[in-house]
Amino acid sequence: QVPAAGGPSTLTFPEIRHQLSQRDAVPEGYEVQVLIRWGDPLLGDAPDFDPNAQTPASQAGQFGYNNDYIDFQPLPQGSRNAEHGLLCVNHEYTDTQLMFPGIGSGRAARLRPTAEQSRTERLAHGHTVVEIRREGGRWSYVKGSRYNRRITGETPMRVSGPAAGHDLLKTNADPTGRLVLGTLNNCAGGNTPWGTVIIAEENFNYYFGGAAATTGAQKDAYRRYGIVAEAQYGWGRFEDRFNLDKEPNEPNRFGWVVEYDPYDPQSQPVKRTALGRFKHEGATHVVNHDGRVVFYSGDDERFDYLYKFVTARPWNPNDRAANRDLLDEGTLFVAKLQDDGKLEWLPIVHGQGPLTAANGFANQAEVLINTRRAADLLEATPMDRPEDVETNPVNNRVYVMLTNNSNRTAQQVSPANPRPRNNHGHVIELIPPAAGNGFDHAATEGGRWAIFLMAGKPGQDAGAQYHRATSDQGWLSCPDNCAFDAKGRLWIATDGAPTAAGIADGVYATDTAGAGRALTRLFYQAPTGAEVCGPRFAPDDKTLFLAIQHPGDDTGSTFEQPSTRWPDFQAGVPPRPSVIAIVKKDGGEVGT
Ligand code: FEO
Ligand code: CA
Ligand code: CA
Ligand code: CA
């Protein structure tokens, strides 16, 4: 029997069942609308999707692959319009084996593309801006809108902040160290109070390879970022910049966050180096009590760290242009979660503590380019893969999704990462100190942290910990991305549950306070092979947008014989990563 209501939870949707399926599922009373799919034409002259003939030219004007972060920026700008706006979507990476006919299966397929196919993949990376509308209850996108835009692995972008122009950022193609072609592996993201969008560069190491990974002058730095001789993609065979032996500095130009203006399709995106270089899962903001803006960011790797960046100045709500370079000045911090529950933030500033010339840092640029090594020296707390980090708009606490860490040993556990072989992950709550009429997210001490939940199946997986009324359907594994509704309820999207727990990835919702705290309930179940990314509510909470990433990415799945053909279910059409809009059939708020 599926529980019909939420027990002490304020979430009243009828919970769905854990299952694995080629199709996705939502609770009774809800509807899934497929809004936009890989290959759907965006620009006016873009051709329709043709699964057998994707080319660089077609892909450059079409929705990209493996949608991840989702933002919704209302139209007109500055309004709270919930039915018309710009959908801003990351495209993290490509599943070569599901994109091209005859390419084979598995990771080996990633090394097989021709020069043209590898360029198609590069153009399927990056980001999309697309105008969307809800009319008569149905969402659709506007083909050929003047706002529609593709940002790709080749789009020119400026480098700004302390590392711009440093020798380690210079290449043959760019002797200035200030102009990079493209953004790659855009996983989660964030936005700013002034209406710009931030896209984060995560696993940039996948694209670079060469003998220099083990023999070159930068081999130690490469190793710290996971750059190895054998790249995961074969792009370096056709493009020198992905070959470390020819362009040893190109990888230093990735691993940053990129800010761009979605309302101006001509604007040039900017890599903001002040926020550090690591596998940025995302970068979400909260406005501090004093008007400065604080960005939280996880570095998604086992035993890596949690960061925040505090702007030097308050933002200006009355003059959008005055905020244009706010992200170039400020302080980056890394978190230390003390065993007694105290939270400490350590400044990553050249000349302070161990970040000196004696340890190989000539200036702040070198500190930022090697953020991970700087944080190692500061003895930050190694976490279990910090993914999305977001601030609850109601209680101002910050929630950190920790996906998992199967490598943590019994000797390496600590109160903040308490489980050895943490296959299911956990969620931590950061409590900033009170200040004036709000909270001080900029504080370096005075904050606390607490475990919100420990994922896994209660009664089966050691250490699993939720509200005791959590149902047999409501437990989760591998928390990855998250979102809050206006009531301060946490919506958690998972990545990796099929492998870790034998259940599909999905979306779970829970109260964060009151009688239903940490009582997670299953709201959405993804199709086989997929993870769920980018949960984003429209400003009226009546639509939940989800990015369904890598559907059909199961072992042995191929273009010809995929494990699912979601969402089209048409012969000859492979699965297509897509953004869906989930609405309540009665038009009410999602979750109520
Ligand atoms: Fe792209 Fe950390 O997931
Ligand atoms: Ca993710
Ligand atoms: Ca999020
Ligand atoms: Ca992921």
TrEMBL record:
It comes from the Bacteria. Pfam families: PhoX. This is PhoX family phosphatase. It comes from Plastoroseomonas hellenica. The lineage of its organism: Bacteria, Pseudomonadati, Pseudomonadota, Alphaproteobacteria, Acetobacterales.
